[in-house]
């Protein structure tokens, strides 16, 4: 799962690297448009991705035939939400101008955003099928599919952005279109494994293509809080990002570059989060809670160790890392200086990210999604209010805003750790309700 999520990070990283070869405005626009796309689909992605835990719980309980039925319910959710997502895209396209971005940036952000939204169905389907294979303990399938997707995406995006090898020169729209095409290709790779004869027979795939009220109710009961949690977290982060970009193109480009390096930490940790969710869900389904402590220890050991090494690198090489994205035109010095200061904050909160993602993976796998939803929503909303005050009311500089964001992550890590150390999420009667359809 770490390799799989790292492949996704590499894809986004190279997309923005290609944008940097045009100018700083394209880097900032790709970040703004990309994060707004994620916010637009975050609620449904949060619901559908909870298939990891639901499938793992059925798998642990020995209900193999119910596992692929979860996939079918996820595809139905992805299909039924398309009219709503079209309405969201129509309205969200105005958000960039409302946030005070320059007209040239607004135009580029809209181009990137609308192309990604046109492929939102494929993104949600890919999320569901990846969650399924993780839930049945087949993460190698996810890795293989994502690696093939990246292998298609990187050269295709290059060709579509710059008009190489006879392809049209589409600029930032080409970066988004390359992502959509690679997503469709990744789904095709998944289908090869999904309809494999051995897999079909073991999991009764042929009998799974129908509406299942019991599974869908359980899916939504546990997944809806997860969807709200992801949506509010993503929405407040996106609004913070857009507010920060209102400082100017220099500040927006610096943030885009810093978050590009942040992905090297955050995205692999998402892989660990998914793996922990799957393993905890499996033991919940099997009624074997004695193994959860081993999963927790292993998860923290891997995540903290990885983030610690990366955090040291972010501090030591902060200037060199910024200069990787030096643009061919304009004064990159101001961007590099601000970004180098922000890299220190990044190195501070990478360990908090590790704590948050392992702790939330454990709690999500055990079905403690309502507590996660309430806590995450409260902390992120407080963060957003503080950012509005810092940026718009008090008119403080970008570093004050950045360090407020760092403090929020540190606080969330401490709260999640407190919940994990308690026993509420382990209570037998609560786990029995989690498994009920």
From TrEMBL:
- Matching InterPro entries: MATE_fam (IPR002528), MATE_MdtK (IPR050222), MdtK-like (IPR048279)
Q: Which residues form a coiled coil?
A: none
Q: What CDD domains is this protein classified in? A: MATE_like_7
Task: Say if the entry is tagged with keyword Metal-binding.
Answer: no
Gene Ontology CC terms, in alphabetical order: plasma membrane
Membrane topology value: Multi-pass membrane protein
User: Keywords on this record?
Assistant: Antiport, Cell membrane, Ion transport, Membrane, Transmembrane, Transmembrane helix, Transport
Q: Which Pfam families is this protein grouped with?
A: MatE
Query: Where in or outside the cell?
Result: Cell inner membrane
The molecular function terms in GO held by this entry are:
antiporter activity; xenobiotic transmembrane transporter activity
The record's Gene Ontology biological-process terms are: monoatomic ion transport
Q: NCBIfam families, alphabetically?
A: matE
**Protein's name in the database:** Multidrug-efflux transporter
Q: Which organism is it from?
A: Parahaliea mediterranea
